Each structure stands twice: as structure tokens, then as C-alpha cells.
Amino acid sequence: SNVAKAAHRNSLGPLQSQFITKNNTRVISQRGGLAVLPCSVTMTTPATVSWFRRKDYQLLTVGLSTYSSDDRFLVEHTRHLGNWALRIKNARKEDEGLYECQISTHPPQSIFMELRIVEAAAEILGLSNMHIDEGSTLRLECKLKRATESPLYVFWYLEDRMVNYDQEDGVSVWNNKLNSSILTVRNVTARHGGNYTCAPANARQASVYVHVLK
């Protein structure tokens, strides 16, 4: 009967806590970047949130305290959102795997996050050998593949010399937020020929050789 069902529900008591974050969420971060594993909860009774690394059952954090000797691990807590995200600075390939966010209810409740680390790489669009006429404008576009965050910087080199700030030599660099960088050289001369390298932070660099034709 409905009365019996209601009595059974009441005997279970109120739900002590509830995860807002979906279980088995996959997080993809780039090597050298910041990995953020979400864990948002709504609590109706006081409880502590802890993070574990499953592959070695390492206790990483309890509440706001970090228990790991690795100072790359830190909890990001936003109280009004019930957020207890685990932040991993300077992410490494060996950080990949399952992580457990656990609430100290009775019995404990957990959800799992899967972290995958990818290698970001630069790619200069076009041919690896370019030919350009003297006096014309050189334009090289460098795109970042598999990047999960914008790079802190993108340096351009001609041979071994960084040219980002060679404005008096006709060079300009424009970086946009969509993970691309454009190098422009106006009024190209023979000295602008050579090997150009796009070197973003935390990503594999790419090169192209420019031949200047008289």
C-alpha cells in the first residue's frame, strides 16, 4: 500500500549527501598544464570530502588539507557551490588514471574521475619548405593541437634567435585565444630566410624552412 511505501521511505531517513558531479567523468588535460577534477556535492549532514588516487590507494587530500608529499595536489573549494575540485599543477603522464572523491557519510559514498594526459603540439600550416619573393610579406600561422588550455606564451625563432619583438625589422606576432599564433614579416629580404620555429609553452614545437627568392 501507499502507507507502507511511505513508512519504508521514512525508515531510510533523509539522504545524507548527494553528488552533483556525474560519476565516471573523464577529464582530459595537457602535459605541463593544470588538471582540474570536479567534485561537487550537496550535504544535508556534516561530512568531510577526501580525494584518493586509485592506482596506489594514495590519500591525497582531506577537506582543505593536502596529505600527499607532492605539492602539485591542491583542493579548490567553493563553499556556496559545494565544489571540492582536485587541482593537479604541472600535470604529468604518470598522473593518468582513476581518482576517487569520497564523502565521509555512513557508509562512505564515492564517485570516480578518470584523468587522461595528452601531449599538445604546434603545427605550422602549409609546406615544411616555403618559397617567397623578396619584398613580399611572409605570413606563418602556428596552431596548437590537443591543447586543453591557452599557452602562457608562444615564441617564434629564426634559426636560434627569438624574433617576437623585432618590430623595427618588419616582424609582428599576433596570438589569439583559440590557440593559434601568426607571425608576419613585411618587406622580406634575404636575411629573413632560414628555419622558423614556433615554440609554445608546454607543447611540442614545429618548424618550417623559408627560402627567399630574388
Automatic annotation (TrEMBL):
Pfam entry (one): V-set
Domain Ig-like: 14-104, 108-209
Signal sequence interval, chain numbering: none
A GO-annotated cellular component: neuron projection membrane
Biological process, per Gene Ontology: synapse organization
Annotated InterPro entries: Ig-like_dom, Ig-like_dom_sf, Ig-like_fold, Ig_sub, Ig_sub2, Ig_V-set, Zig-8
The organism's place on the tree of life at top rank: Eukaryota
Record PANTHER family: DEFECTIVE PROBOSCIS EXTENSION RESPONSE 19, ISOFORM A, DEFECTIVE PROBOSCIS EXTENSION RESPONSE DPR -RELATED
Record protein name field: Ig-like domain-containing protein
The organism of origin for this protein: Anopheles epiroticus
